[in-house]
Q: What sequence folds into this?
């Protein structure tokens, strides 16, 4: 199997995990963050995974990140680790996650997103004792704050400015 570390070197911008009481991150682009152990480059992905007990996925889905968390990546996590995916379902290979759970490599997973949504009624994630499924709601919508945010973006565009949250199509997110 080909290592994806070099393929995703510049694609993953917000991988985060907590290792015991310290924080670790595999940022994009490489940088130093006070109080946080960072990893980067081709070898950084594997080193990051080896240092990770709880892997929290917060990365965009791009050609470089699709199927990034596969059997190889899951096997590199600390034994008994936990996977939390709040990003995109296609970052994780479903069958490889199920296998890692069955083998005891992972203690469990919390999934807020899935490769295909809505998750089919017969999908094994629903009945797996080590998988927690959340309802894909990161926060309730607050109407007043949302309206103010939309209005601010419209005003920025009217002034010829780029609004916050602009998607860079070349990067894919």
A:
């Amino acid at each position: 199997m080909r290592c994806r570390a070099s393929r995703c070197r510049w694609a993953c911008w917000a991988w985060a995990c907590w290792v015991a009481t310290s924080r670790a991150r595999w940022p994009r682009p490489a940088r130093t963050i006070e109080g946080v152990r960072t990893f980067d480059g081709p070898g950084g992905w594997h080193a990051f995974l080896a240092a990770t007990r709880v892997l929290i996925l917060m990365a965009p889905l791009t050609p470089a990140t699709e199927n990034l968390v596969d059997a190889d990546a899951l096997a590199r996590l600390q034994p008994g680790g936990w996977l939390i995916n709040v990003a995109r379902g296609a970052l994780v290979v479903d069958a490889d996650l199920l296998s890692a759970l069955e083998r005891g490599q992972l203690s469990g997973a919390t999934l807020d997103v899935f490769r295909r949504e809505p998750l089919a009624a017969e999908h094994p994630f629903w009945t797996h004792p080590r998988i927690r499924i959340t309802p894909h709601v990161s926060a309730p919508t607050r109407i007043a704050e949302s309206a103010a945010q939309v209005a601010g973006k419209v005003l920025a565009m009217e002034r010829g400015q780029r609004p916050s949250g602009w998607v860079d199509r070349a990067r894919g997110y």
